[in-house]
Amino acid sequence: MSTSAKRVLDQQEQDLVAQSKKLDGLSHRELTELARQLRSRRERVQRMIRDRARAARRSGENHPDTGAREKKELLIEAIDRVNTALETRKLSNSSSSATENLREAVERKAKKAPAKSGPKSRTANTGPAETPNEKIAPSGALHAEGMRASKSRSTGNR
User: Fold this and answer.
1) Residues 87, 93, 99, 105: what is their CA dihedral angle, to the nearest 10 degrees?
2) N or C: which end of the chain has fewer CB within 10 A?
3) Rounded to whole angstroms, how far apart are CA atoms 18 and 81?
4) d(Cα 74, Cα 45) in Å, to the nearest integer?
5) DSSP states of 58-108
6) pLDDT category of residue 144 using cuts at 50, 70 and 90
C-alpha cells in the first residue's frame, strides 16, 4: 500500500482495502460482509465530504478536502474489486447449477412419464360408422316416399 494511502486511511480501512486485494481464500459470506463494511465506510466519507462542503459554502471559504476524496476513491476501488469477484463467482456458479437443474428436471420427467403405448391394431381408423336416417327420403326423390319432402321444399303446393 502506498504511503499516501496509509496516510489517508485509518488502520481498519487499510485492513479492509488489503483484504479486497486478496480475495481468493474468502467465502461468499465473507465477501459480502467485506463489501458491506467497505460500502458503509464509503458512505460515511461521502457524508463527511458533503457536510464539510456545506459548512465551507456557509462560511464563504473554498476547501477542496482532498484527503477525504482520496479516501473515497481508494474505498471505491476496493468495492469494485469485491463486486467483480462476487459477480464472477455468481456467473460461474449459476451456469453449473443451471446445467445440473436441467439434468435433474429431465430425470424427473423421465420417471413420471408413462411408457409409450401404441395402437392395439395396425389398421387405420376410418372414422365413425355411418348411420342412415330412414325416416326421410333422399334429397330430390320424386317417387311416393319423397313426394312430400320435395313438395315442402318447392315454392308452392301442387
Assistant:
1) -110
2) C
3) 11
4) 11
5) HHT-----HHHHHHHHHHHHHHHHHHHHHHHHHHHHHHHHHHHHHHHHHHH
6) low
